[in-house]
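Why does residue order matter? Because the sequence determines the fold. Keep that principle in mind as you read this record.
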Amino acid sequence: MTPRKLAASLIALAIAFSALHGGAGLAASVAGTKCTAIGKTLVSGGKTYVCKAVGRNKSWALKSVTAAPTPSPSVVTGSFAACRLPVADNRGDVALGIPRIAARGKDTGDVHSTVIFVDFPDAKATMTPDAAFAKINPRATQIFSEVSYGKLNYMLEPNLHWFTMSKPSTAYSYASFDGQHSFAAEALALADPTTDFSKSDSFVIITNPDQRALPNGPAVSYSADFGFHLDGNNLHNGATSGADINYWGAIWLNHEISHSFGVVDLYSATGNTYETQFQYTGEFSYMGLSDERSQAPGLLAWERYVLGWLDESQLVCSPTGVGDYSLTPIETAGGIKAVVIPTGRTTALVVEDRRALGLDSKLAKPGLLVYRVDTSKTSGYGPVQVISNATLAVDPRYLKAPLAVGESVTVDGFTFKHTATASGSDALAVTR
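Structure:
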């Protein structure tokens, strides 16, 4: 991870936590009392309060609760029940548990994402909006189509015009909830008179890629209370770009928009060395190392399941674990994609088949990938941990982790062995 990417990661986490962190130790009767940061929440007396603007002041208000949609029968019945790990990380905006957080954006079918472009009095754009748009289009849409097996058609719909913000670029910051929210509010207001948001499911704000005051571009994953009301829509999911778009390219958008769909960061929020930055999942999943130059940026089977891109019928839930299984590559549509062994209320072991195909075409060692999922661990702090026979010092990006035919790994009392391979499937044996 470059220092720029590490900073982007920490900024994204800071924005999320500034909106979600609460002071549970405060007195139960808090409504109407002063607070310090708009969007901050706290839990007191079994109720959740949110910090809101009241005139020129800020005070706590009881948070309105939107009931989650009733899961479909396929989510609440059947043999997969033991493997439906609950959301248990206490964040509220992103998670790897089931069901997916209701406030997050639509992620199947046609998803309309309105794209606007802004520059600044001190950083006027010299490239055309078309050139800036080409940094994400059409590649980001293609990546989403691939990892969702065609279930998501992410439609980037631009207003190809530079809107100039009212203040110099140095007057804006993404380093806090308030900073990003006020930036987005101004940018969207500038674009609103000439932009139709009536069909928008989300939005993307592209800043002049040559500016440097906003180095990193985080996701927008607000609660509905802090959405932007435009043309009859309440928009509270999307992304705001920074200068790092020049390095990461289109997959930057896939990473950030996947946050707005509800999934978490898999890199280490505390890692600051080559060995520790990706100590949890290495180069697997663009929610870790979000770089198309990595070997396997395709999403993990568990992430695709949480997002609704894999059906429960495509994952085998095995409470005992022991048995023989046949898996098809995660990179291809159809077939059984993973074996899930529940090991606790919020934990499971997952095995999937990784091949050098599509987005993962650079994968040097294909095979069966074993990893832990723990939905009680928060974004950036190891909700997924790849299991490998190699030490982190020897293999800090887990490129040796996939099991080739004949190889095995033992974890949590289970031994996973890759027993055979064919053109379209791989055989797994699990023993205790």
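The CA atoms of residues 65 and 301 lie 31 Å apart.
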